[in-house]
């Protein structure tokens, strides 16, 4: 299990690095304490959901919004650390405090993205992720 966790962490960092290399946005690194919690919960959710190589390949290719199982895993991990509520909405105050050190330019993008709801918690979270990726002025990585 320890090797699998280590390989997944390397994979996750690789996915984020590939997305960053293709982006002209500045890189913003999530603080280590918050990053460690998120990675730990991602690993738990991946195992809980029994994801297969198809989902892993989508993550690797940066296509995390094209398969609801991937979005569901992201939602699961962020719910477990308190960044997302049960209705799929992001806890902006917690995210700002724990991840973005209360940067006003990011808060305004998060507030704008929060308005994109959905018919289900998963759809609400997916809409938020799509908006976040587009509007936030930085490329976020662990």
Structure characterization notes:
This protein has 142 residues and is mostly helical. It has a single domain (2-141), classed as Recoverin, domain 1 (Orthogonal Bundle). The chain has helices spanning 2-21, 32-49, 53-60, 68-80, 92-98, 104-114, 121-135, and strands at 26-29, 138-141. A two-stranded parallel ribbon has the order 1-2. Helix 6 (104-114) runs antiparallel to helix 7 (121-135). The chain is globular, with a radius of gyration of 14 Å. It comes from Manduca sexta (Tobacco hawkmoth). This is Antennal binding protein 6. GO terms for molecular function: odorant binding. Residues 1-22 form the signal peptide.
Q: What assembly state would you assign to the polypeptide chains in this entry?
A: single chain
CATH class: Mainly Alpha
Q: Spell the H/E element sequence.
A: HEHHHHHHE
Number of domains: 1
CATH fold type? Recoverin, domain 1
Tally of helical segments: 7
Strand order of the largest sheet: 1-2
Number of strands: 2
Output the radius of gyration: 14 Å
Distance between the termini: 21 Å
User: Which stretches are low in confidence, meaning pLDDT under 50 for 5 or more residues running?
Assistant: none
Shape: globular
